[in-house]
Design goal:
With 164 residues, the chain is α/β, with parallel strands linked by helices. The chain has six helices and six strands. The radius of gyration is 18 Å and the shape is globular. The two termini are 17 Å apart.
């Protein structure tokens, strides 16, 4: 995926991460790991408020969820942060189904891809019956919507850069 991100950027695309993970968790390392700056990360968030304390402006996290960027929330989060429908979307679980639908069913030339984690030896394997990272509904939708499905075990010679 790092090679894909680099290829897209080299060809004029602006790349983003849209994850169900916490936005404040992902932003500090997304640039170093993926080459995606913090302002191009869309994620789940906790409500935050501004206060002046001791003459200093501070932001405080509240014990409330602000937004969940997963499933039906992903297209909403993308729209709120980016303001346009993606031309391409890449996912790996049922949590990405609605994002892929929204991105690829918008008219014009669009691309959707699912990474099917099938390589428990080199990385992870999860599928229809998995408790974590379930890929079931999105896998069925891939065939109907002509999304590309990449089988990690069979299609990738190398998963990590340190592999030969």
């Amino acid at each position: 995926m790092l090679e894909l991100l680099a290829y897209l950027r080299a060809n004029g695309f602006k790349t983003f991460i849209a994850s169900g993970g916490g936005i404040e968790f992902m932003r500090p390392w997304s640039d170093k790991v993926y080459g995606i700056p913090p302002e191009q990360v869309v994620g789940s968030s906790i409500k935050t408020q501004f206060e002046m304390r001791g003459g200093r402006p501070e932001l405080f996290r509240l014990p409330e969820i602000n937004f969940i960027d997963d499933k039906v929330g992903k297209p909403v989060g993308i729209n709120q942060h980016i303001g346009r429908r993606p031309l391409a979307a890449f996912g790996n679980s049922d949590g990405d189904l609605e994002m892929l639908q929204w991105a690829t069913m918008g008219g014009g030339v669009r691309f959707g891809l699912l990474v099917h984690h099938t390589d428990a030896e080199r990385e992870y394997a999860y599928d229809r019956q998995s408790h974590i990272g379930k890929l079931d509904k999105a896998l069925d939708a891939a065939a109907l919507n002509r999304w590309t499905v990449v089988d990690m075990k069979n299609d990738w010679k190398r998963v990590f850069a340190f592999e030969t």
